[in-house]
TrEMBL record:
This is ABC transporter permease. It is found in: Cell membrane. GO terms for cellular component: plasma membrane. Residues 300-414, 686-794 form the ABC3 transporter permease C-terminal domain. GO terms for molecular function: transmembrane transporter activity. It comes from Mucilaginibacter limnophilus. It comes from the Bacteria. The chain crosses the membrane at residues 21-45, 294-318, 339-367, 387-415, 436-456, 682-707, 734-754, 766-786. Its main location: membrane. InterPro entries: ABC3_permease_C, MacB_PCD, Macrolide_Exporter_MacB. Coiled coil: none annotated. Residues 22-238, 525-638 form the MacB-like periplasmic core domain. It is a multi-pass membrane protein. PROSITE patterns: PROKAR_LIPOPROTEIN.
Length: 805
């Protein structure tokens, strides 16, 4: 029986191969898109899930309820971890974690590698399996070193690294360590990434930091005993905070801090590590955080495309149902029951969906590399063939078959035998259903068009908005770990001295934007000033910083080599000046360091030194206490490409063993909005695919309707109707539906994008013309699609049209 169903289904599918090919193309494209989007969503939602204890691990954070708002910081002080473990028996494991970089020397090789400084409990909490070496306690001794498989291969090649001694240079000092273990390479979706692990006790200035409770520079993670509830333990921590941070609390209260719901102005909290990847509102977390809005947008676009494809399938099937009316009538006359007809149509639908799914998987395999390159994903088609994913695909296949095949099958089963054999089949009810589905299709498509336009407009606004400094003519060069910053800057200054096209050279502790090395850092300090606490971002800079970046002075001057006292002087921005008080002047002393107050020598106009998601905050530029990590070179605007190559060549001449990873600052600032650019690209791609799939269905439906109205068109032509009138007559019903879809989509799109724009301090308004343009695009595409068939029908010979009936 099943064999007969399949043979009959194949014959019917081949007979209607034009429509079925359209169905397969639409579904396969939708399935390919959904595969990539849903795998990306799966990848994001499974971040860090390879850790066995992930639901038991928490990261510590301080919450400060200041007068200007609540601040959350994950930076901890060195003595805190041991003090917590001594005071609370509920803590099973605790580890500090600090990041750093080092130059590795071994066997004539010199490599730059990333370090994590951790405590011995690290391996008891996190799942990084040891594949070679000491599995029980990989960091038992202070000179032990743990490598990843990738780092071990890069340093030692095919040698066994266990027991080998290598030299690491960090904090400008060489140290020797012995490789004690090699851990398995962590998966791509890991927040914690490293090349090597060292004991936390070997961090620079460790003993000095252990004396200070006000030096916050690393993360701390804890794991509680299984019978301890995190929310109960969290409340117990306030006693610890009140005891060890009394001065901080008193200072905050004096400055007008407002207590939170629990009556605390300063508290220590537990952040679930399982939520780490999506906690974009908290700075200082491990790994790159991703907004859930971004991930849910991917999921929504995938669902939209799949729904549009299913609607397309239904519309095409309904359109073709009328051509199969006589077939159904004959089958009923010959004794076919309803269930037999239903199973026959379902088998046909299943075969089409199966072909589409196979074609979609093949298509996804071909476009996966391009998708990964565009969206910086790490998808592999092999991820699709996990047992759980295969079961999901089977479930989706059956669901699409049921949904997309049920209505057309029931519609054809309801045809009255006598009516269809006479050639009379009503189409009022199917027309209503078709219209609802068509409106749904174009509502989703128009929604994506509006989201595309608004996201594109916001990104353009971010790129074009003046930041208050020159970002177009300045090259940023990371110095790296193998060079001492101050010395490297002076060497390069001397090398570039007198070179044509070079305007100024300077250096800084922090980068402007996000450079090719991927690093972004912000340093903040607080101090007492005239009875209240002042908080400011600190930027360590060198001479000519304002000149190189073209930052405007409001008052005073910038740092000068001719002034010996400038090494302890500061330059502040307008926000910092306002925080210090309206009477602040150039020449006043500010106690950044209570033992050695700094003199203000200049006040600069506020500029956006961070991304436009944040407001400009108080900023202080200093000349001492901060290493120079970046060299900034400002060049003349007449030939930027030649100037860049000139700087690159001179860098290689000065530092032949150090890689040049320079980039324009305007590239760095744009790199801050990679997530938004990816989202915009996904909206654009989703909108294009949704429109194409919708148009495939619209084209097929218009073709069927033209066939049904052939006699009407012939009569109208005989009575004098011209081509333009006929085209508008045949197209207007579709255009009304598309216009209705746009009206439904506009308020939903406005609400969604308003919520998205709220994440930006600086954002573009949503203009009325965006909706007008989106509606025009949707109407124009629909009109062009329908008019293609309308023009053909209108140009047909009316004599042939009348004979066809």
């Amino acid at each position: 029986m099943l064999r007969n169903y399949i043979k009959t289904a194949w014959r019917n599918l081949w007979k209607g191969r034009v429509f079925n090919t359209m169905n397969v193309i639409g579904l396969s494209v939708a399935i390919a898109c959904c595969i990539m989007l849903f795998l990306t969503v799966y990848f994001q939602f499974t971040f860090d899930r390879f850790h066995v204890n992930i639901n038991k691990i928490h990261q510590l954070s301080f919450s400060s309820s200041r007068a200007e708002g609540t601040e959350i910081s994950t930076a901890m002080c060195a003595p805190l971890a041991q003090a917590l473990k001594d005071d609370y028996q509920d803590i099973r494991y605790i580890t500090r974690m600090a990041n750093g970089g080092a130059t590795v020397k071994y066997g004539g090789k010199e490599l730059e590698k990333n370090i994590h400084f951790v405590d011995t409990d690290f391996f008891k909490m996190f799942t990084f399996p040891v594949v070679n070496g000491n599995k029980n306690n990989p960091l038992a001794d202070l000179n032990d070193l743990v490598l990843t498989e990738y780092a071990a291969k890069a340093i030692f090649g095919k040698e066994n690294p266990i027991g080998k001694t290598i030299e690491l240079k960090y904090a400008d000092t060489p140290h020797n360590f012995v490789v004690s273990a090699v851990v398995k390479d962590f998966p791509e979706n890991s927040s914690i990434t490293f090349d090597m692990l060292l004991r936390f006790e070997v961090t620079p200035d460790y003993q000095e930091h252990m004396k200070h409770w006000d030096w916050h520079d690393h993360s701390t993670f804890i794991q509680l005993h299984d019978n301890v509830k995190p929310e109960v333990f969290g409340k117990q921590l306030q006693t610890f905070v009140n005891k060890n941070f009394k001065e901080v609390i008193d200072g905050m209260k004096k400055d007008g801090a407002k207590a939170d719901a629990n009556g605390n102005v300063y508290s220590l909290n537990l952040l679930p590590f399982a939520n780490n990847h999506f906690a974009t509102e908290i700075n200082g977390l491990e790994g790159g955080q991703v907004s859930k809005t971004y991930v849910f947008s991917l999921m929504a676009i995938g669902i939209f495309i799949l729904v549009i494809a299913c609607i397309n399938f239904v519309n095409l099937s309904v359109a073709r149902a009328f051509t199969r009316a006589r077939e159904v009538g004959v089958r009923k006359t010959l004794g076919a029951g309803k269930w037999q007809l239903l199973v026959q149509f379902w088998v046909e639908t299943f075969m089409v969906c199966l072909f589409a799914m196979v074609a979609g998987i093949i298509l996804a395999n071909f476009i996966m590399p391009g998708f990964n390159a565009t969206f910086r994903s790490n998808m592999e088609i092999s991820m699709l063939f996990k047992v759980s994913h295969i079961l999901v695909m089977i479930g989706v296949l059956l669901l699409i078959t049921m949904i997309a095949g049920l209505y057309p099958a029931l519609l054809m089963m309801r045809f009255k035998t006598v009516s269809v054999l006479k050639g009379s089949v009503g189409n009022a009810k199917p027309g209503k259903t078709r219209n609802v589905l068509l409106v749904t299709q174009f509502t989703l498509s128009t929604l994506l068009i509006v989201c595309t336009l608004i996201s594109w407009q916001q990104i353009s606004y971010l790129k074009s908005r003046p930041l208050g400094y020159n970002k177009d003519e300045v090259i940023s060069i990371p110095i790296g770990n193998s060079l001492k910053g101050d010395q490297a800057l002076e060497l390069f200054r001397n090398k570039m001295n007198g070179q044509p096209g070079i305007t100024a050279i300077t250096g800084a502790y922090d980068n402007m934007g996000s450079g090719k090395d991927g690093s972004m850092r912000t340093s903040r300090i607080g101090f007492d000033y005239k009875g209240h606490t002042v908080r400011t971002t600190i930027q360590g800079v060198s001479y000519d910083f304002l000149k190189a970046l073209d930052i405007k002075l409001v008052d005073g001057r910038e740092f000068s080599r001719a002034m010996a006292g400038d090494s302890n002087a500061i330059v502040i921005n307008e926000k910092m000046a306002a925080q210090l008080g309206k009477n602040i002047r150039v020449g006043d002393l500010v106690p950044l360091d209570e033992n050695s107050p700094s003199r203000i020598i200049g006040i600069v106009k506020d500029y956006n030194y961070r991304s436009l998601r944040s407001e400009i905050e108080p900023l202080t530029l200093v000349m001492q206490g901060y290493e120079i990590n970046y060299v900034f070179v400002r060049v003349k605007a007449d030939n930027l490409i030649r100037a860049f190559n000139q700087v690159k060549d001179k860098w290689h001449e000065t530092f032949p063993n150090v890689e040049f990873t320079g980039s324009w600052i305007n590239e760095n600032t744009e790199r801050q909005y990679v997530a938004e650019q990816r989202l915009s690209t996904i909206f654009i791609s989703g909108a294009i695919i949704a429109i194409i799939i919708s148009c495939i269905g619209l084209l097929a439906m218009s073709f069927m309707i033209m066939v049904q109205r052939t006699k009407e068109i012939g009569i109208r032509k005989v009575l004098g109707a011209n081509v333009g009138v006929l085209v508008m007559l045949l197209s207007r019903d579709f255009l009304k539906l598309v216009l209705l879809a746009a009206v439904i989509a506009f308020p939903l799109a406005w609400w969604l994008m308003s919520k998205w724009l709220e994440s930006f301090v600086y954002r573009t308004p949503i203009y009325w013309w965006i909706f007008a343009l989106a509606g025009f695009i949707a109407l124009a595409i629909a009109f062009l699609t329908v008019s293609f068939q309308s023009v053909r029908a209108a140009l047909a010979n009316p004599v042939k049209s009348l004979r066809s009936e």
